[in-house]
């Protein structure tokens, strides 16, 4: 059996094509059952996210075209449409690819942690569908362990490299504990949504989202236990905010110096962290002149991100070293499974020969027990030694020194 990883991701295909081959929701179970119903496929898992769709399969042969054709057929696409965008990895390369994905080394954002959770979800769906066997089951458990080791032994996830994550990390330099803090997020786009998610994960005390369309603000804030307001209501809530992060597409200033100064009067010198991610800017630069205001711009974040990206790249090199070792360990286990089958078959043969000789020896017990024991020992020894003896003699006659050396080790005859 061969291990195969076949997929498409953000590096090999545009989002329009990735959308067409994504397998999500209730379709995952049906797809898994279709996959393992193919004669060539013995077990399967499907990982499908916004950035990738990957099939991890055990194949009875190396015909990856079987998987390509199935993927196209499942989505009613021409195989030639997706074939140029697909990649495939076999055996140790497939194992290495899976470990790199789980460790965040193959992600759009180097070291991002969300992919591991998505991979665990994929494993759970395959487990529930009954499409995992021993090999893939062991591989995914090994993968989760290695991903944890990478997180523990390297700094791959410690330095923020996304704008939203960097924004929250910068805020933590002002406020170490978010539980008693209130954040005001201005805007309702992807960056603000990710920022809200990171703040929520850090146990933010209270969240307010302001947007030109109040309904959008309400919808976003509700996902994180907050509430939404319109832009015209910011003045009434600004004094409550310890953290203000703005990212709108407005062409004019949203927070001017006078509005912020008024809000500060009610805060009694409590500091405010402000971050303006927008281009053009949402917050008047003159706000930075006010006492107790810590105002940063997107340029400040870029410096943090670039510096941290260098740190992650160094950590990624360390992670690659860990993966090299762990690929070898898994492949050694996999090769050992072949040996387990061979050992089992050899023992079954030996037991069969034992039972045959034992039956004959029992028939001799009534006449002469000593003769029966001698017959049992001699005949069983001859049966067990006959096959290996013939193969060793043939190896000697043909000059097969490699087999001769292996036989010496196998039968523990190389001590002298």
Would you mind describing this structure in some detail?
- The protein has 15 helices and 10 strands.
- With 416 residues, the protein is an alpha/beta fold.
- It folds into 3 domains: 2-157, Glutamyl-tRNA reductase, N-terminal domain (Beta Polymerase, domain 2), CATH 3.30.460.30; 163-305, Rossmann fold (3-Layer(aba) Sandwich); 335-410, no CATH class.
- Strands 7-6-5-8-9-10 form a 6-stranded parallel beta sheet.
- The longest helix has 68 residues, at 298-365.
* Poorly predicted tracts of residues: none
Q: Shape, please?
A: elongated
Integer count of domains: 3
Give the biggest beta sheet: 6 strands, parallel
In terms of quaternary structure, the protein is single chain
Mean pLDDT score: 90
- The total strand number stands at 10
How many DSSP helices? 15
Q: For the record, give the distance between the C-alpha atoms at the N and C termini, rounded to a whole number.
A: 39 Å
Structural class: alpha/beta
CATH architecture of the largest domain: 2-Layer Sandwich
What order do the strands of the largest sheet run in, or round the barrel if closed? 7-6-5-8-9-10
CATH fold call of the largest domain: Beta Polymerase, domain 2
CATH H-level name of the largest domain... which superfamily? Glutamyl-tRNA reductase, N-terminal domain
Look at the structure and give the CATH class of the largest domain.
Answer: Alpha Beta
Evaluate the radius of gyration: 32 Å
How much strand content do the residues show? 5-15%
Fraction in helix? 55-70%
Order of helices and strands: EHHEEHHEHHHHEHEHEHEHEEHHH
